Batch of 4 targets.
Target 1
Amino acid sequence: MNPDMITMAGGPAGDVTLLADNWHVPRIHVGDWFDTIITWLTDNVGPLFDFISTVVSGAVTWLTDVLTYLPPWGMIIIFAVLALWIRGWKAAVVSVIGFGLIDGMIEFEATMETLAQVLFAAVISVVIAVPLGIWAARNATVSRIVRPLMDFLQTLPVFVYLIPVIFFFSIGTVPGIVATVAFSLPPGVRLTELGIRQVDREMVEAGEAFGTSPWGILTGIQLPLALPSIMAGVNQVIMLALSMQVVAGMVGAPGLGTEVFGAVTRLQLGAGFEAGIAVVILAIYLDRLSASFGNRSTFHRMGAVFRNLRGRRTAADEEKTPADADRTAAAAG
C-alpha cells in the first residue's frame, strides 16, 4: 500500500481512501451502476437475447458444417486456389504448406471452427461498421457521438468484454461472437470515416455541379476513392476478430481458443504451442487475402472474370437466337 494513503476506519474496508494531505476522492460506484444496468437488461430484455443467441448459434453451426463438410485435403485445395487467384502461386504454395501443417498437428477441425466464428463475426462487424462510418463522415453530430464510443471500445481491456456477455448469453459460441463483434468494430468505423473524409473535396463539388444526387456522389465518387482505406479497416476487423476468438476460448467458444486455454490451464506446453502455430498460420492467411482486397488490381481481376463470364453468356444467348427464331417460325407455319 502507498505509505501516503490510509483507509478510513468505521466504514466498509477500502470504501474511502484518504491521502496524507486530507484530500480524498469519494467512492464512485461505477461498477455497481454497471452491474445494475446488466441485471436490468437480463431481467427485462431476455427474449431478445434468446433470439440473438438462437440466430447466431444456428448461423455459426451452419458455417462450421460447410467448412468441415469436405475432408481436410479438399479444403486445403480450396484455400490454395483462393490464394492463387488473389495473391499468386507463392501464396498458394505457402497456404498448402501451412494448412498441411495444421492438419498434421490434428488441429484442422478446431481451425475450421475458429475460421467460421471469425468470418461470421467479421461480416457482422463490417455490416455495422461501414454504414456507421459513412454516416459519421457525412454528419458531424454523429461523428462527435461515435468517436468517443469507438475510443471506449478500443481501449477497454479485452477480458472485460467477456463479463457482460456471460450474463446475457451464458457460455459457448454466442458470447464469444458478441464480444468479438464489439471488440473488432472500431477500426472498421474509423477507417471508413477517415477514407470518406479524405476524398478530394473538388471531386465531390464537381459531382454536385453536374447535378449528381447525394447517393450518386457517395456510390460513384466517395466510396470508390475511399475503398483502400475501407478495406484496410476490414483487414483490421478480421485480425482483431481472430485475436478475440482466441480469448473467447475462456467462455467456452469452440476452436483454437479453447485449445490454447485448455493447454494453459493444464500446463501442456506442446499442445499450447501447436494451437498457437495454427492461430499464426490462419492469421497470416487471412491477413494476406484480406489485405489484397484493398489493391485495385484484385478488383480489376475479379471484374475481368465476371465480364468474361457475362460475355460468354451473352455470346451463347446470341447463338441460340437464330435457332429459336427458326423454331418459332416453324411453329407458326
Note: The longest helix spans residues 296-332.
Target 2
Amino acid sequence: MSEEQFVRLLAATIAMGTPLIFAAFGETLAESSGVLNLGVEGMMLVGAVSAFIVVVATGSPWLGVVAGMLGAGVLAAGHALLTVTLRADQVTAGLALALFGGGLSSFLGKSHIGVPNPAPFTVIAVPGLSQLPILGASVFTQDALVYASYVMIPLGWWWLYRTRPGLHLRACGENPGTADAMGVGVAAIRYTAVIVGGMFAGLGGAYLSLAYVPAWTENLTAGLGWIALALVIFATWNPSRLVFGAYLFGGVEAIGFRAQVLGIQANTIVLRMMPYVATLTVMLLVALWRRRLAMPSALGLPYSREE
C-alpha cells in the first residue's frame, strides 16, 4: 500500500467512524441513566432525512443539522414517555421506535431520492496542522462535523465523570432508589438523557446525509445504528473508548469499499459483510468477558418511588 492510499484509507476511516461516535455517545448517555434505547437506527434515519429536507429547502447545512437533531429528539421523547412515565418494556419500545423511524424516514424522504444536496459540508484544512505528514491530510483535512467529534468526546467524558450532573446521571443508572433519596430527580434526568441521546443519534444521521454521502436514499444508515449499540457495550459505557471502537468499525467499512483499489481479491458481498461480522465478533468476545463489564446496574429497569 502506497502512502497516498494509506492516507486516503485513514481519512475514510475517520469519516466513516464519525456518525458512529455521535450515535454511540448519545446511547451511552441514555444507558448510563438506566434507559435502554434500541431505536438508534430509526432515530438516525429520521435525523438524516430531516436534515436533508431542511437543507434542500433552506440551503443551510447548519439548519439541517439542527433539524436532524430535533427530529430524532422528538422520537426519543416518545421513547422516554413510554419507558420512564408509562414504564413500558424498554426492549419492546426501542424495537418499535427503530421500525417506526425507518418507515417514517422512507415516507418523508420519498420525494427527495435523487435530489442533489445544494449545500453539503465541505472539507476544511486546519491551517498549519493540515501540512503535517500523513496526519495532516487525513486527520486535519475533514469537514466541520468531524472536528466537532474530536472535541465532543473529551468534553463528554469530563462531563460524565468529573461533574455533579454527570454523577447524578450515572447514579440514576446504578441505583435510582438511592439517587432519589438524595434528592436527585430520576425521571427528569432519564427524560433528559434519552432526549439528548436521541439528538446525538440524529446528528449521526445528519452527518451521513449532509457530509458523508451527501444525499438521501432509503435506508441510508444501512445498520449503523445497530453497530452503534454494539459499540456502547464494546466501550463499556465509557465515552473515551468509543473513539477506538468507532474508528475500528469505520476502518473495516473503509477497507470493504476500497478493497479493489488496495489490491484485495475477495467477493464484494463478503467485504460488505465485514462490519457486521466484526460486530458479531465483538459481541461474542464481550459475552465471554461479561464479568469485566461496567454495565449500569439498573439498565433496563423502570423506577417508581412507590415501589
Note: The first strand starts at residue 124 and ends at 125.
Target 3
Amino acid sequence: MKKLSIYFVLIGLVVLLFFTIVIGVSVGTLRIPFEQTYTIFVEKLLNLEPTNVTYSGVVWKIRMPRVLMGVVVGAGLSLCGIIMQAVVQNPLAEPFLLGISAGGYLGATMFIILGSGILGIVSGFGLAFTAFIGALSAAICVLFLSSFRSSMTTTKLILSGTIVNALFTAIANFIIVFSGTDNTIARVTYWTMGSLSSAKWDNLLLPAIAVCLVTIYFSTQYRTLNAMLQGEEIAITLGIRLNFYRKVYTILVALLTGILVATCGIIGFVGLVIPHISRALVGPDHRKLIPVAVLIGSTFLVAVDILARTLIENNELPIGIFTAIVGAPFFAFIIIRKDYQFKE
C-alpha cells in the first residue's frame, strides 16, 4: 500500500477525531441536534449563558468527560501496543495478549476487595497504584518465562502471555469468589468487560496526564524504537543498550496500562489492531507512527463507545465486547498472513 504524506494523514485524523467527538456528545438516550452541540461549544468557549440548560448540562457533565476518556484511553492503549511490539519485536504483542492487562485486573481486584484495609492508606491513587503493580508483575513474568534458558521467540512469548493471562485472571477470580460481596463482585465484573461509563471530570485528570507524558517521552525515543524493531543485532551494532531500554519501556507500559485498567477496566485488542492500521498508512517509522496511532486509537475508541451505548435503545453494552469483535478476526488475519507455525 502506498504510504500517504504524514501531514495529510495527521490533518485528516485531527478533523475526523473532532467530528467523532461532536457525534459522541450529541447521540445517546437524549439526542442533541448537531447545531445545538456547536452552539453549546461556542457558548462554553465564550463563557456565555447557555441557551438550553438541559442540553448544556448533559454535554458538559455527562458526555464530554466520557468522550474525552475515550480519547485518552484509545490513545494510551494504541501507544502501549506500539511500544510492546517494538520491545519484543513481535507484531502480535500488546498488553492484553501478553497478560499485562490481566495483571492490572488482578491488582485492581485486590484493591477493591481489600481496599478498606491496608491498601486504604493510599486511597485516591490506590486503585491505579495496585493496578500498576499487578501489570508490572505480569510483564516481568512474561519476559522471564519467554526467555528462560533460551532466547525469546514469538511462540514462547505468546504462550507465556497466555499462561500469565490465565494465571492472573484465575487468581483474581479466586479472590472474588471467596472474599467478594455482591457489591464488590458487581464492581469487579465491570473491569472484566471494560466500560467508559464511570468517566467523570474528577477521574479524567490522572490518565490524561499519564498518556500525555508517556506519549511525549516515547515520541523522543523513535530512533531507539526503530532500531529495536530492526532486530537485536542491529540495535547492539548501533550502540543501543537494549536490555536497559527494554526494562524502562516495559515499566512505563505497565504503569500506563495499570492506570488505564484502573480507570475503565480491560479493553482488549485496541493495542493490537491500531498499530497495524497505522503502519499501513505511514509505515514503520515511529516518528510518524506514534502520533498517527494515537489519533486513530482515540477516534476508534470514541466511535466504538458510541456504538456500545446506542446500538440497543435504553441499554448500554460493555465496550470491551465491541473491541474484541473487531480485534479477534483481525488477530486471526495477522496469524494467517504471517504464516504462523506452531513449531519453529
Note: Confidence is low (pLDDT under 50) at residues 340-344.
Target 4
Amino acid sequence: MQVFPDLKGRYGDFGGKYVPETLMGPLQELEEALDQAMADPAFLEEYHHVLKEYAGRPTSLSYADKLTGHLGGAKIYLKREDLNHTGAHKLNNAIGQALLAKRMGKEKIIAETGAGQHGVASATVAAKFGLQCIVFMGEEDIRRQELNVFRMKLLGAEVVSVSSGNGTLKDATNEAIRYWVANCEDHFYLIGSVVGPHPYPRMVRDFQRIIGDESKRQFLEVEKELPDRIFACVGGGSNAMGMFYPFLEDTSELIGVEAAGKGTDTPEHAATLSKGTPGVIHGSMTYLMQDENGQITEPYSISAGLDYPGIGPEHAHLFQTKQVRYEAITDKEALEALKLLTQTEGIIPAIESAHALAQAFKEAPQMNHNETILINLSGRGDKDMATLMEHLQEEV
C-alpha cells in the first residue's frame, strides 16, 4: 500500500500547498517541527498522557442494545467521542496542536470554527497551556451556537465575528487565513479539520487516529473480530478520517456520510463528494462545491459543523479510489435519527453525528443478526439545543 501523503503533501491527485508565498516558510517550519515531534517519544508520551488525564480517554465503546432490538438486523455499537472533555472529538487534535505550538515557541493561537466545538476545544487548550487565543466564527454560526460562543469567551478566548458570505465556516476560515498571513511569525494556526495546505490534513489525521486505534482494540476485545461496517459523518472530515485511517487495510466497509440538507436535487445541501467537482479551496486541491466558472457556491446544512463547501483531500482520494463509500443524508433524516437514538438509548447526539446514525439506521435492518456496525458518535447535542428546539419542539 502506498503511504499518503507523498513528499509534496499530496494524496493522489489531491492535497498539496496552494497558498501565498508568505505562507510557504511558516508551512515548512510547521512540517519540520511536526516531523521532529512525532518522532520524539517524549512528545508522544506527553500527548497521550494529556489525552488520558485531561481529556478522559479512552472513550467508551457502547453496545446499543435497545436500538439494535428496535431496528433488527446488525448489532450496533457506538464510539462515544461525545464523552470526551468538551463534548466532541475536536479536543484530541487541539491538544496535539497546542503541544506542538508550545514546542515551537508560539504563544498565540488562532482558530476557526463552525459548530463551535473546535473553537471551544481551542479555547480550552489555550487556557490549559497558557496561550492567547483568537477564534474566527461566522455570524450565522454565532447565532446558531450562542452557548458555545459564551463558553469560548468564558475560557478567555477572543471571538471574532465574520459577516462575509453566508457567515458560516467557509467565511470564518477565509478570515482566519487572512489574519494568519499577516501574523504568521508569532501565531500558530490551529486548524480543526483534515483540510488546508500540507501538512495540516496529515497532522489532524494523525492526532485524530486515536479514535480508530482505540475502536479497533475495543471491538476486538468485545466481538473478537472487526466490525462489518463503520459509519462517520463528514464535513471537513476529521472525525471520519480519525476513525477510518487505522481500518484502511482491514476488511471493514467504511462509510462517510455528508449533509444532503434539503436534498441533493436542490441547491441547499453540503454534499461535496456527491455533487462537487475537483478544485482548490483553503490551500488544498480537493472536491468542492463550485459553479461552472470555478466560483465556490454556498453550502447549506441544518448542522453548523457540516455546511462547509470542501472536504479533506484524503477523503477526496478515498472517494476517487473507492476505498470508502460516501452517502448523503437530509436534515429531516438526521433529525429523525437523532430522536430515535435519544429516545431508545438516552443519548442526545450532535446533529453532525446524527447524519452518520441515519445512514447506519437505513442499513442495519438489511444486515444479518451476526453482523456488526460501528458508528462514530463524534459529539454530543448540548450545543445544538437551540436548533433542535426550533425544529422539534412541537413534536416532543
Note: Residues 87 and 253 are 27 Å apart (CA to CA).
